[in-house]
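[[Sequence with tokens]]
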Amino acid sequence: MSADVTKTPSSAPTRGPRELIFETGSPAARCFELPPLDVPEVGAEALAGQARTSAPALPHVTEVEIARHYHHLATMNFGVDSGPYPLGSCTMKYNPRVNEDACRLEGFAGLHPYQPLSTAQGALELMVSLADALAEVSGLPAVTLQPAAGAHGELTALLTFRAYHVANGDARKRVVIPDSAHGTNPATVSMCGYDVVTIPSNERGGVDMDALRAALDTDVAAFMLTNPNTLGLFDENIAEITEMVHAVGALAYCDGANMNAIMGKARPGDMGFDALHINLHKTFSTPHGGGGPGAGPVCVTGALAKFLPGPLPVRLGDGSFSLVWPERSIGRVRSSFGNFGVLVRAYAYVLALGGDGLRAASEQAVLSANYLKERLKGAYPLPYDRTCMHEFVLSGGKLRKEHGVHTLDVAKRLLDYGFHPPTIYFPQIVDEAIMIEPTETEGLADLDRFADAMIAIAAEAVSDPDLLHGAPYTTPVRRLDEARAVKQPDLRWRPAAGE
């Protein structure tokens, strides 16, 4: 444990940010030297009405000052290279650097989406091979790589469902989702023109079968389910669920955000799902966060293949590769063919691990999560005490009720211990939720350090609640007004009057 985190609020050190780049340097400093002008100088009359009346407010710094400034900003940021990042539902795991080397090869990085296909055969082969691998992992034979993120994959899958129903002359109106669903699920349903029907979870964290049975009728277009779900639990009734959905002519969609727990172990297609999106930027270890880039390929049954967005890369009979449009395609959902650099990274990951390696990654992710769950459930209530998959959800409700300490306080205090906080307040069906996903890339020593920190914070909440109310103490900036930052963001620096 760092000595810093044991200090009281009054004595804990703070590490303030450096000066703004505008506040460094000197008026005479510069980081470039222009050669003498070797063309006629433009006269003032030619710039009439266009010339500035005052010098631009630019920093006057040297090259080394610029380098140090941005290096310092980078060190203030926290990422998977800084330490454990147990962000439940988001799978923030280490990204092997070989993937970065692969996507920067000139034959991939220098491609243009409109160059002749004969000059892009390697890229097309990569996409076809990646699609084949995803089809094998998912148990669903047809794949589009176009969607740019998980939510985009959801939208693509549901638009494909809608096209299927329309082609069958079936005007359905509703989509059913569980109360543990990702927030993007109901948003996607509304964007596709359907009404959302939400059903509750049962006492074991799975789908309430009676509620599902009551919600299903011939007006339902689809049932959307994350499996394993956002509680980190595999639904024990999954085969019966998909049978019930199909019995009324509806389609079953799997939100594949949590494939990190089951790849190589269980296939959604074998469970009866008709479509699945896979987050390559989570399960297949490509960069994630900061708004992108991402990739959310969609895998579907053969019956839905003709509705997929196009064009699709295909292998021709002569061994070459080309692009084809599915017979009743919903059209493009993304310019070009998706975020190609992310696809390259994911394929490099698949080749490096192979089938056995992908399965081992899932096994390690599940083992790590269950290890942490067992270590922490004595310090924080565990609403659903059963074997979890890759993540689990604790509750901070007891700390709030007995000591006035909220989950947000726990998350902020964890920063002082050198860890990025887990996801909090989601899923909303758990009071003061703390959602933890260690991933398969963390070693036992870091898992124990994280568990020790969480247990120590739970003890601090009892002995000194105000310590947590004021946290963090050791970060570059202290606790911010997050609500105001969302409602009144101030994203632009403005010079003071007269500068």
Q: What stands out?
A: Residues 357-487 form a domain with the Aspartate Aminotransferase, domain 1 fold (CATH 3.90.1150.10). The first strand starts at residue 142 and ends at 144.
